[in-house]
Amino acid sequence: MKKQIILLGIISLMAWSCSKSDEEFLNRPPTTILTQDQIFKTEDAALSVIGDLYNRYVDFGTIKDWRSLAGFNISYWSRFGDYAQFQNSGWGNGDWGTWNYEYIRELNLTIERIGQATALKDEVKAGFIAEVRFLRASYYFEMVKRMGGVPLILEPLTYDFSGDPSYLQYPRETEAAIYDFVISEAEALKDLLPSNADSKSRATKGAALAMQARAALYAGSIAKYGGTTPTVSLPGGEVGIPAAKANAYYTTALNAAEAIINGEAGAYDLYNKKPDLSENFAALFYDKENPEAIFVEDFKVGGGKTHGFTIENQPRSTAEEQEGGNINPSLQFVQSFELLNGTYAPLAHEVGGDPVYYDQIDDIFDGRDARLAGTVILPGSDFKSKPVDIWAGYILSDNTILTGDQRGLKKDIPGGPLNVQVVGFDGPIAGFEFTAQTGFYIRKHQDPNSGSGRRGTQSDVWFMRYRFGEVLLNAAEAAFELSELGDGAKLPKATTYLNRLRVRAGLTVPLTDVDITFDKIAHERYVELAFEGLHFYDLKRWRIAHIVQDGNPITMGEVTQNIGVATKRETQPYSIWPYKYFNPGNPNDGKYLYKILRLPNITGADRFQFGNYYSEIGQGTLDANPLLVRNPNH
Amino acid sequence: MKYTFYIVICSALLLMTSCSNELDNFDAPSSFLTGSITYNGESINVGRNRVRFELRQPGYALTGAIDVAIAQDGSFSSRLFDGKYKLSFVPNDGPFRTVATDTIYFDLKGNKTMDIEVDPYYMVRNAQITNSGSVINASCSLEKIITGADEKTIESARLFVNRTQFVDDTNEGKAWEATADISNLSAVTASVDISTVDNTPDKPEPDQNYLFARIGVKISGVEDLLYSEVVKINL
After folding, report:
1. Residues contacting residue B34 through CB under 8 Å, at least 6 positions apart
2. In the prediction, which pLDDT does A381 show?
3. CA closest to A619 among chain B residues
4. Which residues in chain A show pLDDT less than 70?
5. Does A387 lie at the interface with B, CB-CB under 8 angstroms?
6. Looking at beta carbons, which residues of chain A come within 8 Å of B64?
7. Residue A496: phi, psi to the nearest 5?
8. Is B58 part of the contact surface with chain A (CB cutoff 8 Å)?
9. CB-based contact (8 Å) between B63 and chain A?
10. Does B22 contact A at CB distance below 8 Å?
């Protein structure tokens, strides 16, 4: 008992000693938090806040997540964990949803606090505020694309702890109102932001105009094509834009895009530095001395910001890690690149049922749009100056196939040499991850620098959110739609802008006005902007996603049909595999032939439902704010 | 001293367990709501997992709905707590007309069977699906129910044949399909030869002597198909 009393005494003594200690000890300034005054006292500190807001920019497709660029059956995913994507039948209603009002609040708070700062120069404050407004408009644009109209909150909201939060509940604006906000912010910001074509990763006049053109184009097409899916709309206009507004939106889009094209925002132009047009198109995405980039997310090796796109997608045979080759572009995508004379043609793998034999493995791809080899790593091409090894096996004289289930496996050829390689080190082997299971790898966004495929180094290729090529396409589409809506004088503009891109792609026969159709516009966007995160929104805003992804499997007969048609079914990626012909004495011995197939792992066919056009608003969000209406078909 | 310590610990434990007992004293829901969606008492056949309605219990803080899926023969079954419910369809879901304000209120006390009358755009009548050898023939007539401002046209009709009793337009729901001739809505016909049709090259002729089939009708502007009853065919 005595012991206890002594212990109690010691404890109480200690407690007393603590509470009596000096105030200074406890009232030290925190070392992990900067106060508002400290942050907005110097330009550098304020810039770090804005840098954080830039870092939180929301992209649908981003180089940081290869899946986000490669979806909707434009490619097969050569990775064990991802085969299920091709065995299911569609997408969830909540997919692609974004509802980050925390980000909105911090953007609003930053605008307010920069405005209140006393230590910064006025022109510095104005510049910062313009940048944050650009980021805020960008995120509202991202939300309206995915969710339709959302509550438009333009100042930081604060709860007063009265127990009644209803004054913080805002209803959804109409879809048109959010697009109008994005367009009007861009209109205001283009004169507040610097007109500097060399500033790529921060907001500029060019970025504001490019955002305005894209937003107006999207709004215009929803107005024009929304009528084809009347159930994808809400009576309050939170989803759906009246058809009467199409003309005004397309006009805004064309004007904004032409402002960039005419050099009002600085010296932007198509990237055209390399004599080899395919190499040029690939370099467009990794060369940072680049007049085409308008607004990018930049990375720096050694600077603490890198990404693993090249690790995940480098050809497996020459990979710097034991992985790579995740994205395998589909046969449908590859064959959609036109011949140089501007006509569509399937890959000539057989004529009248007989296989075509090629001397070289890549001869089958000869004479196509230069963007094909710039976007896709074809069999017989190379990456980082090392050849890829994509071939599926031998076809023997009796038409049997001799192949292996391991990369570069060696076997004996019956009646031929012993212990020779019977399959490429890049496959294709069905079900073998990281091999080129469709016959192709992706080239776009891949970093040719040594070390880019190593986890210890990674890649700093930037991701272009807006580029001059897309601006040309946006201008062309807006001009075409305006001519469809009655202003026929705009059509030559569409022709001119498309031809600028097509000359860079090496196409020899220029388009004339009669060639410009909706399918032509859609095709040009499909091949030029593939794997840049924009295809999805094209399918949505033209209201053709439910036709293209209709839930039906693709038959062998139809896969090579209707090339260049915007509504061509794209529910499953197909493959085309090169084989070597082994038949000594036959004139075709040693030549290559091709076979089209659907991988056995592809058992599902994607169906895009009406409920997928606009993502579901989470039940928790609806519970918290009874003024919100649900999206259609949910 | 030691005893006091143990007594304190034990009583604290007791207190804790008694609390948790108090909190978790709900019985599991025990009442069944069953029935079918009907038109004039006749079940409306829809695709599996394609159509649902929502139940809500007004008066609670959370407004989330209880989804009730409708089976392919139009029936539904849901196990619920007793109470007052509000039933509504999701707008534009299902091959029938839904009005956003169309709401049914009901009390649930014990098991309840309730058929829900809806206004379909069409009804499939006299569906006949038979086979002669490996050829499956189907015929039906389509009766337009909703006329006037809301009336809709038929976009297409297809015959679906599958190995399992789940037959619909999804990839898993059809092993064979054929587009029907809809030039005359009172005599819609379709036929498919399951031994030669090549639309599913990876699904050869089955090693079973029975199949299931039904006709699906796509109404313009309506996402979900309307079906006839599933018929078992003995080969």
Report:
1. B75, B76, B77, B78, B111, B112, B113, B114
2. 95
3. B64
4. 1-2, 9, 11-21
5. no
6. 619, 622-623
7. -60, -45
8. no
9. yes
10. no
**What pLDDT sits at residue B141?**
94
Q: Name the residue among A215, A201, A199, A191 with its Cα closest to residue A264.
A: A191
Residues A528, A469: contact at Cβ < 8 Å? yes
Give dist(CA A225, CA A233) in Å, integer.
12
Tell me how crowded residue B151 is: count the other CB atoms within 10 A of its CB: 12
ipTM: 0.78
Instruction: Say if B170 is an interface residue toward chain A (CB within 8 Å).
Output: yes
Chain B nearest C-alpha distance from A45 (Å): 43
Cβ B170–A553 below 8 Å, yes or no? no
Return left, alpha or beta for A478; rule: phi > 0 is left, psi -120 to 50 is alpha, else beta: alpha
Residue from A156, A170, A106, A99 nearest A135 by CA: A106
Give A89→chain B minimum CA distance, Å.
7
Cα A57 to its chain centre, rounded Å, is 14
CB of B119 closer than 8 Å to CB of B145 = yes
Q: Is B119 on the interface with A (CB under 8 A)?
A: no
Q: Which of A275, A313, A274, A266 lies closest to A293, judged by CA?
A: A266
What is the enclosing helix (H) or strand (E) of A328? strand A327-329
Q: What angle do CA A100, A101, A106 make, to 5 degrees?
A: 110
The Cα of A553 is separated from the nearest Cα of chain B by a number of Å equal to 7
* pLDDT tens string B55-85: 998 888 777 889 999 999 999 999 999 999 9
Residue B197 one-letter amino acid:
V
What is the per-residue pLDDT across A244-266, written as a single tens digit (0 to 9) for each? 999 999 999 999 999 999 999 99
Q: Is B107 within 8 Å of chain A by CB?
A: no
A561 at interface of B, judged by CB pairs closer than 8 A: no
Partner-chain contact A546 B223, CB within 8 Å:
yes
Chain A residues in contact with B62 by the CB 8 A cut-off are 619, 623
Are B1 and A553 a contacting pair at CB < 8 A?
Answer: no
Q: Which of B63, B93, B171 sits opposite A553 (nearest CB)?
A: B171
Confidence of residue B206 (pLDDT cuts 50, 70, 90): low
Per-residue pLDDT, B199:
46
CA distance B174 to chain A (A): 10
Cβ within 8 Å of residue A392, ≥6 positions away:
A401, A403, A423, A424, A427, A428, A429, A439, A577, A578, A579, A595
State whether residue A556 sits within 8 Å of chain B by CB: yes
Structural Rg of chain B based on CA atoms: 25
Check if A595 contacts B (Cβ < 8 Å): no
- pLDDT score of A255: 97
Closest-CA residue of chain A to B174: A552
The pLDDT tens digits for B5-50 are 777 777 777 766 655 555 667 788 899 999 999 999 999 999 988 8
Strand (E) or helix (H) holding B138: strand B135-144
The per-residue DSSP string of B169-232 comes to SSTTT-SEEEEPB-SSTTSEEEEEETTT--S-TTS-S-SSSEEEEEEEEEETT--SPEE---EE
C-beta of residue A54 within 8 angstroms of C-beta of residue A463: no
The per-residue pLDDT for range A57-84, each reduced to its tens digit, is 999 999 999 999 999 999 999 999 999 9
Please answer whether residues A184 and A141 qualify as being in contact, where contact means their C-beta atoms are separated by less than 8 angstroms: no
Residue type, A142: E
- Measure A348 CA to nearest chain B CA, in Å: 22
Looking at beta carbons, which residues of chain B come within 8 Å of A1? 1
Spatial separation of the C-alpha atoms in residues A359 and B144, rounded to whole Å: 62
Cross-strand pairs, B159: B178, B215
Q: Does residue B149 sit at the A interface (CB-CB below 8 Å)?
A: no
Q: Mean pLDDT of all residues in chain B?
A: 86
